[in-house]
Please model this.
Amino acid sequence: MHISEIETPAVVVDLDVMERNLCRLADYTRRHNLRLRPHTKTHKIPALAERQLELGAAGLTVAKVGEAEVMLKARPPGILVEYPVIGREKIERLAEVARHTRVTVAVDSVEAAEALSAAGTEFGILAEVDVGAARVGVQPGAPLRDLLRRITRLPNLYFEGLSFFQGHILSAQADGVLALERLSVLIEQILADIKQEGLQAQVVSGGNTPTAFLSHQIRGLNEIRSGTYIFNDRNTVFSGGCAWEDCAASLLVTVVSRAVNGQVIIDGGSKAFSSDAYWGPGGGFGHLLEAPQAVFRKMNEEHGFVDIRETGRSFPVGARLRVIPNHICPAVNLHDRVYTVRQDQVEQVWEVAARGKLQ
Amino acid sequence: MHISEIETPAVVVDLDVMERNLCRLADYTRRHNLRLRPHTKTHKIPALAERQLELGAAGLTVAKVGEAEVMLKARPPGILVEYPVIGREKIERLAEVARHTRVTVAVDSVEAAEALSAAGTEFGILAEVDVGAARVGVQPGAPLRDLLRRITRLPNLYFEGLSFFQGHILSAQADGVLALERLSVLIEQILADIKQEGLQAQVVSGGNTPTAFLSHQIRGLNEIRSGTYIFNDRNTVFSGGCAWEDCAASLLVTVVSRAVNGQVIIDGGSKAFSSDAYWGPGGGFGHLLEAPQAVFRKMNEEHGFVDIRETGRSFPVGARLRVIPNHICPAVNLHDRVYTVRQDQVEQVWEVAARGKLQ
Model:
């Protein structure tokens, strides 16, 4: 099948670029003696999780129990649920997953830990700590020590260490390096908190793609959970985490209207790309590979508004374009399948098996 | 099944409110002698399309061929594809749909019309005209007359009239009324253009939920394609198009963390709500029914960040909340199923059959 036969809009993955991305981070983590537990939220495809494991990943990371269920197909040595698992049904389902692989859960509340403990299944536990993203995670110091004291007393739970999310550090440039130095100091304090409780953190796990290749500068860190690195996207390029040629996934779209002067409408809007924002100046919703000067300025559900005035070109109705989205993870989640290509040939069509596994 | 047994995050539809919304617009359009061809993009569920037809809808509207294929299940007397259908495979699939029901397509280019004509199947045609949204649609005047001249010569196409999208008019308040008056003047000009070509527009079709109940003030309009009115959402309330008690669909979510002071994290983010923006001041991503003072200020993929400082309340981990999203259409599109309730009892679980039908 030739790429021109793919019906648009569609997610197209360049296999050579993807493989290069996978190997680059695998090599980096091996070289720096870091465990890699890739977050599968980006691709949601068991075959890709298998490839990550083949290349040395220590296990897989998911956000939702439904994703863990799907990722069992990749036969991982372990699954980290980097999300509070709350609700009886979810814990029952997770206990079932734990019959097939080692399951670790990041917790930031005694309530979450108690409910897991009561399930009667052994779960690994990471204490989730807030290092600045102000999302989940207890504060370092007294709140962390209190959580540790209470969860390590509970039966069926095996304390493995710490997890955090440095999602507030979005740059691999000088300001990012400075932020990572501050993070190192904080982690040293946190490890002192843990030591004070007489505990040992086997795992100190951080998550972030923009600064993935600076992870060795974070003192105390021994595991990373990057996800986006497999495909990369416009925000990863903006952050300095990769170059345009490292973006393995793009959306193939068709020009469906050029009735308004200086503009084309493409057949992908928020239901194909997601409306996630760009972190960089100028905003917009994607980078057009064939027309980098074009401004993808607005979206409706099924319409992408592309200002082509700066391109010096015109695009006929029916022209096909490739767009690097702002954020590839929610974009993939909107598609039932992903097409993989080498040059202009489609190699496989993958089902996005964990798409929409919200529960 | 009790509502408390639904695993979160989930879309929950209050059947009584939905039925009231359906009847209200059906009554309005009947009273004002307007055809209603509801856009099914909002619910994507054939059973709901059937109910719209039972209440008098003249047909159904879709954006994509894949949605038309699914909506055949509702046995509509006709389907309007309010979107340029570009690409050989799509037109072949649409010709197959046309074997089962009358298919009308809105076109804004000769290329689109020629490709439809060449398929050898009879299609109804609406000429799409831009009335200010600057999305699709030719400009009134010479460009419209040129399009009409060229498409009405093509075999297999039956000219039915005009369509437009007044999506730039987002208010049912005084400024919206003024904008509708300007729109009326424009439509009168457009109808004169059509007359000048010796043509008759049987159908003059407009789309918009915020101003749906002001449609009778648009002179020349005889059909509306509202979609969102079945469920309504936070933006419809902001626009003045409905009240909170008219919001039939909400997202049921669970508090999964309250580790950060003054904040709770709910288990729905951009993969459950979409990251579509709020039109009103203050931004945010939804309205919490149980805590209207809460500010749903930020989302990651699976995390909703809710500032609860103004609520004067606390919410334990495990608390369940209902949230009216900014935009219900892309939210429904993220879910495989929708739960319908009456009071606290779940009545049905509907598959969102046209979810993800992007092609």
